[in-house]
Amino acid sequence: MAAQSARKLEPWQRRLFVPNYQVGEAAKYAKISAKTVADWHKVGARQTLSAREKRVALSYMQLIEVAVVAAFRRAGIRLKSIRSARDYISKELKSEFPFAEHRFKADGRRLVMDYQQIIGERGNGKVLRPDQSGQLAWEHILGRLEEFEYERRGIVVKWHIDGPSSPIVIDPRVAFGAPSVGGTPTWVIKGRWSAGETVEEIADDFGIDNSQVAYALKFEGIENGMGKWLN
Fold first, then answer.
1. pLDDT in tens, 91-101
2. Of 37, 141, 173, 225, whose CB count within 10 A is highest?
3. CATH 1.10.10 fits 180-230, yes or no
């Protein structure tokens, strides 16, 4: 039965759970330290995310959970609340990676999510406090984590690494989940630049804008001379 279900999955869906991102890469993308990434996965009373074997890379789903928790922390939400929310949603929705599969919001320094995700249409227009064992609250001015885009089943399929307006994305359907711009991995663009090609030549060759090339190069650590394209 499991094999039959696996065959029904699209190739990119089968890659969601395959180890593909080193801890250092995840830390760079989420703008946190590698130690923090490791600590969040460490088994114990303060464990925040799913356990990870030492020296084993993170899957796409684990990467997105790291990114979501990092976003929560930047919003001032305490790790204790984050852990409580993840535990509650994991049990209620039987989800192994709840932060990568369900929409959450930040309301000030609280975590909320659409009640509709729990009970269906009857919950439309209401939100709950997953960090308070599902306590209900009415939806007011709530900001979604806008750097994440979801497909219809709720899985995060696109992460705008530098914010919702950034062209740099991680998408498991594109370039095997490598950071990319306009469908081209940023490391490929860096390689072409290092080989002596100009921004204009690279942009023309890949059918993307000069500014996209400049953003990719900046992401890869090359900033000199990029200012005129990024303004």
1. 776 778 888 87
2. 37
3. yes
